[in-house]
Amino acid sequence: MVTLRRAASALFALAMALTASYLAIGYFDSDGLQWLDLARVVLLALSTAWLAWGAVLALNGLFSLRRGRVPRLRGPITVRTAVVVPVYNEDPVKSFSHVAAMVKSIGRTSFASQFDFVILSDTTDQRIAAKEEFWLVRLKTEVSHICKIFYRRRPSNPGKKAGNIADFIKTSGALYDYLIILDADSLMEGSTMVEMVRRMEADPQLGLLQTLPKVIRARSFFGRAIQFSASYYSPIYAQGLALLQGTEGPFWGHNAITRTRAFAQSCGLPQLPGKPPFGGHILSHDFVEAALLARNGWKVRIDPDLRGSFEEGPDNVIDYAKRDRRWCQGNLQHSRILPAPGLKRWSRFVFVQGIMAYVSAPLWALFLAASIIAPAMTVIPDYFPAPGLPVFPKVETANALALLTGVVGLLLGPKLLILIDGMITGRNRRFGGSIRAFCSVVIEIVCTSVLAPIMMLFQTRAVLEILAGADAGWPAANREAGRVSLSEAWAASWWVMVVGLITIGAAYRLAPDYLIFVLLVAGPQVVAPFVISGTSYAGQALRRAPVSLFVTPEELTPSQVMREQQNVLVRWRADTVELSDSIMAEQSEDPAEARTSR
Amino acid sequence: MSSAEENLRAHHIVQQSALPAAPMAMPEQVLSRRWRGFLLRPFLQWLALR
């Protein structure tokens, strides 16, 4: 059934690509086919196939029978699970408040004694490391009566996050049957952790079970648009993905549970020969770990129905683009792993998908560039191929319109279908009702349309940098980043504006007939600094608007672990301020001591 | 509790948090295909016969 579904989905994508090529050839042929037109057709076919594949995930998710209850063990839990929280130069007040809330949440189940929490620090900043020790004491004082809490810090961080977890398994892995792998910004209900263990216990061949984490705590317009998108569309796409992948599912590096034995046996990652960006440590290790588990015969599954799993996302375009740059390097590095022996075909296909997610940006950019140049290279048509009356070339405007409609349909169709599905099934009620959901979807589509050409250039630059051998490194995630001033936005995106202006200039000169279409792409690029800065503000104002936008169920009714974490964080932050005040007071009382202590 | 006692207690808590030792093997996986050998093998076999 999975193979049939995969074949049908691939055929759909292929059919869309062929249809687009056919329409494009018909249109380009009206003034004679040039070699550049053939290049445009190939670029369009690749890009359309990629778009169609995205759409097919949503269609699979929408038009599938909901899965029945997944197998789960009943009765008491006797196995031991470590909840692993890797941290790397993050604010310990914030990340430890997440741990405190999760410990309290697991304490509300009957199985707290079966879970240990393990904070694996790779922090390199000595000041943050000292703060980690301080807040560890606070964390343990408050919640260590519920669960055991361990903390270990590596003096250096070889292998980055994958190396951090591997080091833990090599040191202490034998104590635990399962590992719940989280990120520093992850949050998970205790009941969800218990349910994950039950599902793992019910299937001895299940090596890894991935949840679909919901994005929470977004504050800006941009962050809230992403949060809404993740909450509203992603479950449908994930359902489609779950049906296509069968037991060769994804691992997204966090908010997942793995069988320790399976992970240890399959996921010892070597360093790739050569230097970064293509050699060295494997950056996007999660995809590779999922592929290696499947290679060793373990099942890897995503269960989108598992609730109570959360993460935080970037709140502005710049942080999003920085994360994208890292992911882009990691995905392109997978081209080295693509021919690895013994991998399942689907795993290889997943690597190709990951690479295409970024390579599609330069493909679209090339298509745009070729489309602007092509009219200038058109040969003057021969109006008198034979003596007699002139023969005028037939312009296939209908083909162009059909092509445009098709591409827009593939982009917007799945979102509109999800909206209609929400109206029919009543799912929209959880998003504040159908009117609010409709307004949110429309504004999200507008927002995406404006941001897509800007992101296309950021991704194109990332791909070109990586191909030129530039390494992004592994900067700490900026989870508390806030607003972006216009000057910061200008510094990050002036070049996007320049590219946009050049594109408009070239279109005006070479292809004036296409100028209106080119403006749809290059227009947002010209105002990129304003878009980047503007979308980093005004997040909360959206909730106060007459029709509050981008409302999610997690916002309307925050889960207990979310409320708990917020309470702990507010309390600890207040104490931080008091501590700072008292330190300042001590220093001002005894300036001599303050000088010597520096 | 005095500040010194407080510090000692904090130090004790941090020390107590160390990971328990229970090692588990994690063998390094093979990710590279030996293309060169694969291509050269017929030639080397042919050469060996000479």
TrEMBL record, chain A:
Highest taxon listed in the record's lineage: Bacteria
Mode of membrane association: Multi-pass membrane protein
The Glycosyltransferase 2-like domain, residue ranges: 179-371
Cross-referenced Gene3D superfamilies: Spore Coat Polysaccharide Biosynthesis Protein SpsA, Chain A
Record's subcellular location: Cell inner membrane
Keywords per UniProt: Cell inner membrane, Cell membrane, Glycosyltransferase, Membrane, Transferase, Transmembrane, Transmembrane helix
TM helices/strands, residue ranges: 42-65, 355-380, 400-420, 489-508, 514-534
Name listed for the protein in its UniProt record: Glucans biosynthesis glucosyltransferase H
Organism: Chelativorans sp. (strain BNC1)
